[in-house]
Amino acid sequence: MAQQEVLNGGAAKKAVVFTAVKPRLAVEAPKAGDAIEFYKSAFGAEELGRTFYPKRKAEQELPLVLSAQLALAGTTILVSDCTDDSAAPVKNAGAGCVLCLETEDVEAAVAKAVAAGAVAEGDLADEADACCGGGRVGEVKDPYGFTWLICSPAKKCAEAE
Hints:
CATH topology of the largest domain: Signal recognition particle alu RNA binding heterodimer, srp9/1
Number of domains: 2
CATH class of the largest domain: Alpha Beta
Number of helices: 3
């Protein structure tokens, strides 16, 4: 049932209710397929589906990924190839976007990501202002330019205090 709001003198309007946020990671074409495999290997993502661009240029060996859905930590992320005519600029790949993952074993998660091809950024640290509000944190940059903070779960942080 849709929610109703009363605004401006009693006129009823439908409230807008969002059901999900799905970050879309646009990687330089034709690397989306590689990125998908990296996220599966490094973070245990599960591929839910993949669609390809309906047209491809003759010089392209692989079809480009229009959108792939990955389940990761209870969330869906989208991964796609960024082409010359797509909305996402390749030059800014990963810029301004930091993804946070929570885990009980930060050290093992960082090591797994590095083994899959990520680069560790700095040392593991105990942070007061991390993605979980405090606790153990590691940072890695994936091969496609995106930064991932890997931190202790919020409940674990609260128990430590």
